[in-house]
Amino acid sequence: MALMTGAQILIExxxxxxxxxxxxxxxxxxxxxxxxxxxxGLEHILVRHEENAAFMxxxxxxxxxxxxxxxxxxxPGATNLTTGLVDALMDSIPIVAITGQVPQALIGxxxxxxxxxxxxxxxxxxxxxxxxxxxxxxQTIHEAFHIAISGRPGPVLVDITKDVLLGxxxxxxxxxxxxxxxxxxxxxxxxxEIEEAVEFLWEAERPCIYAGGGVISSGASEEIVHFSxxxxxxxxxxxxxxxxxxxxxxxxxxxLGMHGGYAANLGxxxxxxxxxxxxxxxxxxxxxxxxFAPNARVLHVDIDPVEIGKNRRADVGIVGDxxxxxxxxxxxxxxxxxxxxxxxxxxxxxxxDQVQGWKREQPFQYEPASAEIKPQFLMxxxxxxxxxxxxxxxxxGQHQMWAAQYIRFDKPNLWQSSxxxxxxxxxxxxxxxxxxxxxDDKVVAIVGDGGFMMALSELATIAANNIPVKIIIMNNGWxxxxxxxxxxxxxxxxxxVDMSAGFPDIPMLAASFGLKGSTxxxxxxxxxxxxxxxxxxxxxxxxxxxxxxxxxxPMVPAGGALEEMLLGPQAPVAVGD
Amino acid sequence: MLERQLIALLVENKPGALMxxxxxxxxxxxxIDSLTVAKTLDPTLSSMTIVTETSPENGELLxxxxxxxxxxxxxxxxxxxxxxxxxxxxIKVSNVKPxxxxxxxxxAEIFRARVVDVxxxxxxxxxTGSPDKIDALIxxxxxxxxxQMIRSGLMAMARLPQNKRPIPTLKQEEPEAVxxx
Lengths: 577, 181
Fold this sequence. Notes:
The complex is a heterodimer of chains A (577) and B (181). Chain A has three domains: 3-170, Rossmann fold (3-Layer(aba) Sandwich), CATH 3.40.50; 191-361, 3-Layer(aba) Sandwich (Rossmann fold), CATH 3.40.50.1220; 375-545, Rossmann fold (3-Layer(aba) Sandwich), CATH 3.40.50.970. Chain A is 39% helix and 16% strand. Chain A contains 22 helices and 20 strands. In chain A, the strands form four sheets. Chain A has a six-stranded parallel beta sheet, sandwiched between helices. In chain A, helix 1 crosses helix 2, helix 10 (221-231) packs parallel to helix 13 and helix 11 (262-270) packs antiparallel against helix 14. Chain A starts with a strand and ends in a 32-residue tail after the last strand. Chain B has two domains: 3-81, Alpha-Beta Plaits (2-Layer Sandwich), CATH 3.30.70.260; 84-155, ACT-like. Chain A, domain 2 (Alpha-Beta Plaits, 2-Layer Sandwich). The longest helix of chain B has 13 residues, at 56-68. Mean pLDDT of chain B is 89; it is low at 171-181. The A-B interface holds A 118-119, 122-123, 126-128, 130, 147, 180-183, 304-306, 309-310 and B 11-12, 15-16, 19-20, 23, 27, 45, 60-61, 64-65, 67-73, 175.
């Protein structure tokens, strides 16, 4: 077997695991890796800040369902990755991060650019490693990929000392995975749990499917549509769940939660049976937990046993891969129907009509304007261009919620949102990662003016690599969501939210990076500007000045019950009866 | 209301395993009352006993969150279950008056404590037993002089049902055998 350096073994191992592109930033201790990358086939995208390397790896992973790769040097490089790692942990996104560490002889001596990466990222990763023995390097990379993608996906970090990168050892590409005695994934559901679930669902009169990111990551969008048809149940989804069901399906409702649709929130609140699929009953979904769907029984399916009953007690819990659970459950439901005849079909169809009636009664809506661009109007026009097929990465805040409300996604893995962590600065780099994964697809970054400034440095990465993402800045001159809360709950005392002062001239900024860009203010300019941006072969920066003081509705105030939505800028109303 | 929770773990004997387990507790704001860890007969595995305080509704969640860790082979809640529980303490009693020395060693015998170090005015005792027994001995020894002590923290091992108790072999320590309990 040929001897290789640790750096060569690392790169060969990444390629063996299917790595195609790595987003990274070099430094002192990773010099040996970058020397290998100098003339290696593994593509490397040089970012301008390590945090964005992690977000790009996430964008790649979210767009493909495969493991995304990022790399940074020791000390500040590694600490800069951390936000992206936590983001991937919260949203269960499979990424592998490689960091260099100072030579073993210097560890613990406060060496230059030394940080306890292993300790710091313990709580930021699904699992992490510190490699101090070159003979363990190849196996560790093997394990890192396996752990990142298996079961509930998540980020894995491998910290490698410089002496390991410089050392030499034999490498064999066909290494097999050693057993991991503490890592067990239950993919197939327990048959007894399935039977219990069949009986449980059999009794439902007003079932409601509540589905999230787990459905996307298990690739179960076909299965969930079939399941919904067989169960005869409406489907509401989390902000992670966009694209699992076509928006024109008669059972499709919308996103639920704090800024979810009226019908979705009312539907889950009034149903008698919740079918939670790859969801975690997050506080932004449930509102006040002890008043969430008080009369509903719960069936909860998740691959992570921790989630079953974590927030809301489950009457029936199934641990397993959502795709396999749905295949088996749907099959058993069909067989049971064939044996016993159809149960509660009339009641369920009346129920679906009722939920869809609520949706027609109170769709996502806003007060149109002719003199200025309403942010919701921007999203509607973007939706028309994207037509359910484009990959859209959003940042965090008002624009994120409006995009989630107004843009349709008819396929999974198109929508990218920092949903659990809510990390501003995510959208622009995530779009870069998605575009690298889907070079031929339309990729749009919709960002606010605040988040755009956080990720500004990556315009250089976009320009240098001619990555054809369309960056749409929804510019209201504020940190809009913070301002909205200050308006509603802090007596309009707009403290430290104005972003308009100092905001760059976008056409000039774009030009200085060698990019095309424009700024528009009037509704009649919008379609033309969007066409210009999307017709452009390369990247484009479109700054859309929108209505400044606009709030996202419906809104469930924090701590309120999900049914208590504010539907517009009037006094709070309890909706429904 | 927080209640005492006793957890027995089998973990991979790897750097960071202890940090990960402790991290699950600390990130949720739980205090660790005691924690013992040592290698098992299989040197690739360590056993760990943790005593912490949790609210009853979070006890099961905590076990699941610890089990989720890649390095944790098995986690068992022994709070309610039948388990042998032992702790070791070294207790130093100093400034013991000469006329009290005989009485002290007599009392120590009642607790099956052994004298492991001695000088004209002090004794160091070694005692094992349940935490209650050790507490009782320490209370008593305060009457004899100034007390310093160090405790190992609790070790716990689940009892097997009498009819299922296998002939003890090394295999007991292997994860498969433990999982089959």
